[in-house]
Amino acid sequence: MLIDTHCHLDAAEFNADRNDIALLALQQGVSNIVIPAVARNNFDTVIQICQQHKHCVYALGIHPMYVDDATLDDLETLKTYIVENNPVAIGEIGLDYFVTNYKNNPDHIEKQIHFFTEQLKIAKQHNLPVILHVRNAIDDILKYLRRYQLNGGIAHAFNGSFQQAEQLIALGFKLGFGGAMTYSRALKIRALASKLPLESIVLETDSPDIPPAWIGTEGRNTPLELSKIAQVLADLRQVNVAQVLDITSANALKVLPKLADLCTPPQVLL
């Protein structure tokens, strides 16, 4: 069983072959795909994709890199969508201090923090996990997670320290690993993937972004690469890939409890 816990199948890069990719992924053993929204204007899109492809499920949230175009009304819309729909998580939400330097643009960072904390409150109110974007901002992320005491979630594309990883795990979070782990020069990420408890790891592609080494940094990533990504993790840990598949899938189902209820069992079409 393979679960892609982070895939932007709604992205424009999939406009020409989205349905084919979704079907091929299922045929190749990717039993479930989690599609996180990034802004109010794609809530309906991710829901519609998941209605069409029953092995896909969605999360709803406002991404930190999209807050400049967001309004407070979008938070109210998010609350309404959660009540009327059934997302597996709130996401993709978080903080990003990589693109926007904290000191150079404090107004933007203040808005990021406002949207992040308001969405943490929404997640807590509805007893939902969160899917986190944590780029260059893990310490602040941890501060707010401790403040609001959620039911865990996934730290997507984790690239922090072992100490930060341990703190996230203690708060009930799993850590997402994908294409970045496949590059031999990514020593830090590969060390994390090798040494962290396998029970703390989930697999992801972040398609169409973060393509694995065999595609190259300019290529398009897709859920079709997930099985090879899983093999890389198995090789790094020197274990059988079947063990990686079993444990990472169980991890995803544990941290996203609605996933098992919303998704159909994997079916391979002949």
TrEMBL record:
PROSITE patterns: TATD_1, TATD_2, TATD_3
Binding-site list for a divalent metal cation 2: H133, H156
InterPro entries: DNase_TatD-rel_CS, Metal_Hydrolase, TatD-like
A GO MF term: metal ion binding
Residue sites binding a divalent metal cation 1 per the record: H6, H8, E92, D206
Gene3D superfamilies (alphabetical): Metal-dependent hydrolases
Database matches in Pfam families: TatD_DNase
Keywords: Hydrolase, Metal-binding
Family statement: Belongs to the metallo-dependent hydrolases superfamily. TatD-type hydrolase family.
Protein name, per record: TatD-related deoxyribonuclease
Species the sequence originates in: Methylotenera versatilis (strain 301)
Species classification: Bacteria, Pseudomonadati, Pseudomonadota, Betaproteobacteria, Nitrosomonadales
